[in-house]
Design goal:
With about 350 residues, the protein is an alpha/beta fold. It has 12 helices and 14 strands. Helix 5 crosses helix 7. The longest helix has 20 residues. The N terminus is likely disordered.
Length: about 350
C-alpha cells in the first residue's frame, strides 16, 4: 500500500464502503439479491446512523456509497453525500442508472460527488439486458449522456464518470466491442471485474475461474487487447482476473485498510462478508458452503474506532499480515487476483 505504513491499530482508512440501502429496483440474474429474494432483508441506512461515521470520514480517503442495493433509492441520498463531503472525504457511488433522468443528473452534477460509477454486464442489449434484468443498456448509456450534459451545463469537472463492467464467461466473445461502445461519452475509466460471489449452481459456469492454463492465457490476452484498444480511444480500461493457485497475502478488498458498513449498521471487512440474507448457500468450482455474515459490531451503538481496535478484529487483520487468513476468506478469489493497475 504505497504511501501508508501498515499499522493494525491505525484508525485511518483508504476507503469506507457504506451500504446506504439494500433495496434494489433491478433483478440482475447473477446477484444474491435476486437469487435469495425470499430471504433478503431490505432497509435504508438511517441518516442518524450514518452521522456516527463522520469522525471516521475525516480520516478516510474515500467514502463509497454502495452495497447490495441501488443507492439512489435512498430518500436522503444527497444528504448523505453532503455529510460525507463536509467531513472532508472524497465521495463516490455506483448506480444501475435506471433512476437518472435530466433533473436527477443535474442534482448529481451539483452534489459534490467525486465520481458516479455505472454498472454494465454486456456490450449488446441482448446480453446486458438479459443479465441485468430491470435495467437496459440503452437506459444506462442515456443516463451517462444526461450526466455528462449536466456537467457541461454546470461547467463542472465532477463527478467523474466510471463504468463497472462485469465480465461473464458467456460475454467474452463481445468483450472487444467495449471501447467502441463507450467512446465519446466522457467516461473517465472502466474497471472490468468477474463473478466472484456465486449464489447458485446455475451461475458456476459464468465464473471466469479457468483452471486450464491455455484458457487463462487466452482470456488475459483478450483483456490486454481491450485495454490497448481503449487507450487508442482515450478510454482507460482496467481489469482484475482470478489466477488460481497464486494466492497473495493482500486481499483485493483491502481488508487491512478499509471496511464495509451494511444498511443495518453492522461492520464487516468487505461487502462479500456482509450480505443481508439469512441461511443461504454459495458455490465455487468445487464445493457448496453455507453463508454466514462476518461482522465485528454495530456502529449504531458502538464507536467505529473502538470496533477497529477490538481484539477479534485486530486478530482478523493480523491473519492476513501473517499470510494465514481465516477459513471464511481462505478460498475467496479476492486473494488471487492479477490486476493491471
Amino acid at each position: 500500500m504505497p504511501g501508508f505504513p501498515f499499522n493494525l491499530f491505525a484508525p485511518a482508512f483508504d476507503w469506507l464502503q457504506v451500504e446506504v440501502t439494500s433495496f434494489c429496483n433491478a433483478a440482475c440474474v447473477y446477484c444474491p439479491h435476486t437469487v435469495h429474494r425470499d430471504k433478503w432483508l431490505s432497509r435504508h441506512l438511517p441518516v442518524d446512523t450514518f452521522q456516527k461515521l463522520r469522525p471516521a470520514f475525516r480520516k478516510t480517503k474515500l467514502v463509497h456509497l454502495q452495497g447490495w442495493g441501488e443507492p439512489l433509492l435512498h430518500p436522503d441520498f444527497f444528504t448523505l453525500v453532503s455529510l460525507a463531503r463536509q467531513a472532508g472525504s472524497r465521495v463516490g457511488t455506483t448506480t444501475n442508472g435506471t433512476l437518472v433522468d435530466a433533473p436527477l443528473a443535474a442534482r448529481l452534477a451539483a452534489s459534490g460527488l467525486d465520481f458516479v460509477c455505472f454498472s454494465l454486464a454486456g456490450t449488446t442489449a441482448e446480453k446486458n439486458d438479459a443479465w441485468r434484468r430491470g435495467t437496459s443498456l440503452a437506459k444506462t448509456l442515456e443516463a451517462i449522456r444526461l450526466l455528462q450534459k449536466a456537467k457541461e451545463a454546470a461547467r463542472a469537472a465532477r463527478p467523474a464518470i466510471h463504468i463497472a463492467y462485469l465480465l461473464l464467461r458467456s460475454g467474452i466473445d463481445e468483450l472487444l466491442r467495449l471501447p467502441e461502445l463507450l467512446a465519446g461519452y466522457g467516461i473517465d475509466q472502466v474497471v472490468i471485474t468477474t463473478l466472484d460471489c456465486i449464489p447458485s449452481p446455475a451461475l458456476k459456469e459464468e465464473s471466469l475461474f479457468f483452471p486450464e492454463e491455455a484458457a487463462q492465457k487466452e482470456l488475459l490476452a483478450s483483456l490486454q487487447k481491450v485495454t490497448a484498444e481503449g487507450l487508442k480511444k482515450g478510454l482507460p480500461i482496467y481489469y482484475q482476473l482470478n489466477t488460481p493457485g497464486q494466492k497473495k497475502q493482500a486481499c483485493s478488498e483491502n481488508v487491512r485498510r478499509a471496511l464495509f458498513v451494511s444498511a443495518d449498521g453492522l461492520v464487516s471487512p468487505c461487502v462479500f462478508t456482509n450480505l443481508p440474507v439469512a441461511r443461504a448457500t454459495f458455490f465455487d468450482r468445487e464445493t457448496v458452503r453455507p453463508y454466514r455474515r462476518l461482522t465485528f459490531g454495530d456502529i449504531s451503538t458502538q464507536n467505529l474506532f473502538r470496533l477497529w481496535r477490538q481484539k477479534d478484529y485486530v486478530s482478523f487483520r493480523r491473519s492476513f499480515n501473517a499470510g494465514e487468513p481465516p477459513a471464511f476468506c481462505r478460498e475467496c478469489p479476492k486473494l488471487s487476483y492479477l490486476r493491471n493497475w
